[in-house]
Amino acid sequence: MVPLTTMIPSAVRPMADAIVPVGSDARLITAALLGFAVIILLITWLKVHPFLALTIGALGVGLGAGMAPAQALTSFTTGFGSTMGGVGVLIALGAMFGKLLADSGGADRVVDTLVARSSPRMLPWTMALVGAVIGLPMFFEIGLVLLIPVIILVARRSGLPLMKIAIPTLAGLSAMHGLVPPHPGPLIAIDALGANLGLTLAFGVIVAIPTIIVAGPLFSTFAARWAPVPVPAMFVTPEDDGVDAAQRPRPSFVAALSAILLPVVLMMVKALADIIAPDAEGTWKVVLDFIGTPAIALLITVIYGIFVLGAGGRMNRTTVAKSLESSLPPIAGILLIVGAGGAFKQVLIDTGIGEVITRAVLDSGISVLLLGWVVAVLVRVATGSATVATVTAAGLMTPVAATLAGPEVALLVLAIGAGSVFLSHVNDAGFWLVKQYLGTSLPQNFKTWTVLECLISVVGLAGVLLLDLVV
C-alpha cells in the first residue's frame, strides 16, 4: 500500500519523525502549562484578541521550553504558514462557496426542505446524519465550512437554539474524522498497524452510531442550556428579511444538494481509489488524486457553484462577483486565529512535548487498547492535532499490533482514533474555527465544543472495549 503519510498535511508530518526535546521533561511540561494559562487569561481576563494571545503564548512556550529565539520564531512562522496554506485555503474557498450557496437561494432550498420534512424534535437527528455523511471523507475543517451556512440557516428558520442544530452536526463530522475509514485519519492507522480495512470499517460504523447519538442530539440539549448564544448574523438571505421565497428564483433542491455533495464525492472517489488500487499508475489515477485533493475539490465546487447555483438563482456576472468578494472580509479574523492556532501547535510539536508524554505512557503497563487511546489522547492534548496523535500513536503501537489477532488490531485502530479527538482546546485550530463561526465566548466553547469532543472520545473508547468483549 502507498504510504498514507502523503495524505497528511505538511503541517502535521513532523511528529512522524523523531523529535529531540529542547529541554528537560519538567521544563517542557511547565512551559506548556504556563502557555495554556497565559492564552486563556489574556483572552478571558484582559479581553485580548485570540490572534494576539495565541501569538504571545506560542512564542512564550517556545522560549520557556528552551528554544533559541530564532528557532521559536521559525517554528511559529512554519506552523502559521502551513496552516494557512492548508486549512486557510480551505476556509477561504469554503466561505466563497457558502456565500454563493446562500446568495443564490440554494441554502434556502436545502434548509426549507430539511425543516419541512423534519419536525423540530427530529431536526437535531437529521443534522447529525447530515454531518456524518458530509464528514465521512473530509477533514473536519472542510466539512464545517461547507455546512456552516446550513447550520445557521436551519437554526434561524426552525427557531431552535443554535446549539440544538450545531452540536449534532459537529458530532457527526468529528466522529467520522476519528473513527470511520475511508477518512484519512483511520486510514493512516490502518496502514501503520496492518489492520483489515473491511473489519475496521464495520467496527467503526458500529462504534460511531451510538457515539454520534450521545455526543450529538442527546448532548445538544445540555449544550443549548450552557451556551444560549444567538444565531450569528451570517448568510442572511432575502427570505430572512421577509421576502416570499416564491417570489425569488432559487436553484432546485437537486442542484443545491449536488453542489454540497460534489467535494464529498470527489474526495471519496480518491480515497476509494487509494484503497482499491494503491499501486495503480496511469492518467486516471493521476486525475483522481488531483481532483480529490481537498483544495482542488473545493475549488472545483466553487466553479461548479458559480454556474449551477448562479444559474438557478438567476445571478449575473456582477452579482456572482459581488457574492464571492463579500465572502472574504467576514472570515479575515477567523483565518488569523486559525493560523495562530496552527503556529502554537507547531511550537508544541517542535519542542518535543508530545515525545515526553508518550514515553511516560508507554512505561505504564496498561492494556493494549487503553494504551493506544491514552497515547493518542496525550499527544492530541499536547499538540492540538488529531492527525498527529493518530500518526504518533499508531507508529508507537505497531510492534504491539503484530502480536494481536485481526479483530483486535481493528479495534486498536478505533481506540487510537477515539483518543485522537479528545479535549480540543486552545492549541487546536478547530477550536477557534468553531468558536468564531458560532459566536461563543471562550468558556462557552469549552462547555460545548470541548465537552463534545471528550464525549466522542470516551463513548468511542467504551464502544471499542465492549466490542472487544464480544469478538
UniProtKB/TrEMBL annotation:
A Pfam family that this protein carries is GntP_permease
Query: Could you tell me which InterPro entries the record lists for this protein?
Result: Glcn_transporter
Instruction: Write out the annotated subcellular location.
Output: Cell membrane
One GO CC term of this entry? plasma membrane
Q: Which UniProt keywords apply?
A: Cell membrane, Membrane, Transmembrane, Transmembrane helix, Transport
- What is the official name of this protein in its record? Gluconate transporter
Keyword Thylakoid annotated: no
Instruction: Report TM segments.
Output: 28-45, 51-68, 80-102, 122-155, 162-180, 200-224, 253-273, 293-312, 324-344, 356-379, 411-434, 446-467
Q: Which top-rank group of organisms is this from? A: Bacteria
The record describes its membrane topology as: Multi-pass membrane protein
**Coiled-coil stretches:** none
Q: Which family does it belong to?
A: Belongs to the GntP permease family.
Specify the species: Microbacterium ulmi
Q: Top-down, what is the taxonomic lineage of the species of origin?
A: Bacteria, Bacillati, Actinomycetota, Actinomycetes, Micrococcales
Select a single GO molecular function from the record's annotations and give it: gluconate transmembrane transporter activity
